Amino acid sequence: MPNSHTRLSSRAMAFVLAGGRGSRLKELTDTRAKPAVYFGGKVRIVDFALSNALNSGIRKMAIATQYKAHSLIRHCQRGWGFFRAERNEFLDVLPASQRMGGENWYVGTADAVHQNIDIIDSYDIEYILVLAGDHIYKMDYEMMLQQHVDTGADVTIGCLTVPREEASAFGVMDVDTSARIVDFMEKPADPPGTPDDPNVTLASMGIYVFSWKFLREILLKDAADPNSSHDFGNDIIPDIVKNGKAVAHRFSDSCVKSEPSAPAYWRDVGTIDAFWKANIDLTDFTPELDLWDHDWPIWTYSESVPPAKFIHDEENRRGTAVSSMISGGCIISGTEIRNSLLFTQVHTNSYASLDHAVVMPYVTVNRHANLRNVVIDRGVVIPEKLEVGFDTEEDSKWFRVTDKGITLITQEMLDRRTAALS
């Protein structure tokens, strides 16, 4: 029997679902899955779920990949290869493969776990934590595991507290006074309130805790059902709510904050606008998401690069950055940068300006370019004198401009523009 004083996380594994494209991010996910998209100057989106698991004490992890998985797999190999099998810790990457009766693709989130039952069995675990790999947040999963055991739940579901008028965009929980879920509704027109506050609703975070023995039986039953879509949200969870015991865990109870008064931070950066805003928010004087927290670090792959460099000190040709985050390897040569976030190895040139710009790694900004309210994809070369963010009608001819006026720039878009103007 396990020692009763050991943390539950030592007897658990994290299974991260990271196979989705994230189509609302448009061209940012043309070559990579959403969990592999860059965020915050140096990390990837998936690093938040993995770091939460690691910081919570979980040393057994698996990540299921499917769409355009190479970038994600390479990142996990480079950034998460520090686990030591001899200490019974590991991160397994589980691409969709031809494993089950001739099938290859994962046909649903539950199927992604089901197809790997034999691998999970080999981990010799008691509990499994199923996580979405595409959200930005900091959370201590040990607290959720403890609630799961204390309540004797069949499933414990991580929930956000959202204003009732905004809850129609989520799968929502109707709970009783003991936090037991009595009904689960997908994007209802009239979301229910909570017992303690009728003006807020509990929305699913796509985070689930099960005992492995229980989930294993449920997955085998679900796999044999020809009418099932083999999805946690559509099939597994509603069935447990109806026939078992499902309990809600409030994110505010386990959210990791630097200050007790800080808000519970969770973001789905699933659109260009949301992605841009979440990155730009990090340049605030005191951002809601604390990436400087040594007690709960976000682990990632870090390239070996020199510090950022700022050069030229002449009128109208001064390398400066105000209220901005500039990553290692950047060379700011005579460029004025304001309220922007630059990833690794961005090089900018004289007389250019960046304002509220999110710039991915290895971008070059050439002379006299003026860019405002933009997201620039990895490896893009911005031509001289390009102006974006000042004329929406002109920008829309060549680039993707959102309803809120944020412009996405990729190299393919620039190449089409160059060909059309030549």
Architecture overview:
It contains ten helices and 29 strands. It has 422 residues and is of the alpha/beta class. It folds into two domains: 8-283, Spore Coat Polysaccharide Biosynthesis Protein SpsA, Chain A; 309-421, 3 Solenoid (UDP N-Acetylglucosamine Acyltransferase, domain 1). Helix 2 (70-79) links the parallel strand 4 and strand 5 (90-95). The termini are far apart. Homotetramer. Alpha-D-glucose 1-phosphate binds at residues 106, 171, 186-187, 204.
Number of strands: 29
CATH-defined topology of the largest domain: Spore Coat Polysaccharide Biosynthesis Protein SpsA, Chain A
Query: What would the average pLDDT be, to the nearest integer?
Result: 94
CATH superfamily of the largest domain: Spore Coat Polysaccharide Biosynthesis Protein SpsA, Chain A
The profile of the biggest β sheet is: 9 strands, mixed
CATH class of the largest domain: Alpha Beta
Cα(first) to Cα(last) distance is 74 Å
Radius of gyration: 23 Å
Q: Report the structural category.
A: alpha/beta
- Could you say which overall geometry the principal axes of the C-alpha atoms support? elongated
The level of helicity is 10-25%
Count of alpha/pi helices:
10
What is the CATH architecture descriptor of the largest domain?
Alpha-Beta Complex
Low-pLDDT runs of 5+ residues are none
What fraction strand? Answer: 25-35%
